[in-house]
Amino acid sequence: MKPVVMTCGEPAGIGPEIAAQAWAALGRDIPLVWLGDPRHLPEGTPHEIITDAAQAGAVSKRALPVLAHPFAGNAVAGEPDPANAVGVIDVIARATDLVQSGEASAICTAPIHKKALKDGADFAYPGHTEYLAALAGQEDVVMMLASQQLRVVPATIHIALAEVPTALTPALLRRTIEITHHGLQQQFGIVSPRIAISGLNPHAGEGGAMGHEELNWINGLIDDMRSEGFTLAGPLPADTMFHAAARAKYDAAIAMYHDQALIPIKTLDFDKGVNVTLGLPFIRTSPDHGTAFDIAGKGIANPSSMIEAIRMAHRMATTSS
């Protein structure tokens, strides 16, 4: 099995320490390689510099394999240095090259700090997902948040709530459903995915009393896609589709905007949620949290989400191979 490559993320955050902890938990069972500046790893982390990802499998059982990528600056916990921005961005691109060339099985990205990247390198993307899509030459990708209890996809992501009704178009929702359906089949091994779709408005519009998008086009789109062979439920009231009995009826849920999707999964499984990008020509996962500057370097960061992200990447790679 080719290794899962872990990107370093923002070196002043908790990324390097949770990567070291994830290797300690998983390195004997899953081949791993960390891509970053070894100076930024926590002091005392057992690691070995390698020159080829193919060396990771043997090394991972005894130490964290490191593909070294020199950065301009040191890492001071909790204090992002814009001088390191180019290094952070280049590591993501290098990891993408490794997985697209077949040298790695998947990418697991540590959190980045967008302001530091903007200040230090004029980073032009809203985040990891959009940058990875550009590197892969893909226009249409979706963000899935996944845990053992729930998989959920927001149709619109990092935009103001006031912009959602305009951004949410039939074409966007259709493509989100198609990509989610394909990802569940190819990367999760679900032959006939069942997908639940929320309404945009409270009570899914309640027959037009609380909004008209459901009546005007969402119902029709879902009916059309059912006739094409998709197994879809909805549009459903978002406030009743995430309890245990409801979740048992679908493999993934599509919500109409960011908080409608992320609140339930972060409530159900805050520490073990995983960010998965569907629609890329390779597997990418990430822990579902940020850089946590306030606790960086204190030895108290919880690696659970990083561990789950690596496990999921490995499972997905095994399923799709």
Structural notes for this entry:
It is a single chain. This protein is α/β, with parallel strands linked by helices and 321 residues long. It folds into 2 domains: 1-139 and 282-321, Isopropylmalate Dehydrogenase; 149-268, Isopropylmalate Dehydrogenase (3-Layer(aba) Sandwich). It is 37% helix and 17% strand. It contains 11 helices and 12 strands. The protein has helices spanning 15-26, 56-59, 85-100, 114-121, 128-136, 164-167, 170-188, 213-227, 244-247, 258-268, 304-320, and strands at 4-7, 32-36, 47-50, 64-68, 106-109, 142-146, 151-154, 194-198, 231-236, 252-255, 274-278, 284-287. It has a 12-stranded mixed sheet, sandwiched between helices. Helix 8 links the parallel strand 8 and strand 9 (231-236). Helix 1 crosses helix 11 and helix 3 (85-100) crosses helix 4. The longest helix has 19 residues, at 170-188. The radius of gyration is 20 Å and the shape is globular. The mean pLDDT is 94. Belongs to the PdxA family. A divalent metal cation binds at residues 158, 203, 258. This is 4-hydroxythreonine-4-phosphate dehydrogenase.
Query: What is the CATH architecture annotation of the largest domain?
Result: 3-Layer(aba) Sandwich
Count of DSSP strands: 12
- Return residue spans where pLDDT drops below 50 for at least 5 consecutive residues: none
What is the third-level CATH name, the topology of the largest domain? Isopropylmalate Dehydrogenase
The largest sheet, given as strand count, sense and whether it forms a barrel, is:
12 strands, mixed
Shape: globular
**Widest sheet: strand order?**
3-4-2-1-5-12-11-6-7-10-8-9
Percentage of residues in strands? 15-25%
Order of SSEs:
EHEEHEHEHHEEHHEHEHEHEEH
Mean pLDDT level: 94
The name of the CATH superfamily of the largest domain reads: Isopropylmalate Dehydrogenase
Number of domains: 2
State the share of residues found in helices, binned by percent: 25-40%
- How much is the radius of gyration in Å? 20 Å
Content-based structural category: alpha/beta
Top CATH class of the largest domain = Alpha Beta
Number of helices: 11
* End-to-end gap: 10 Å
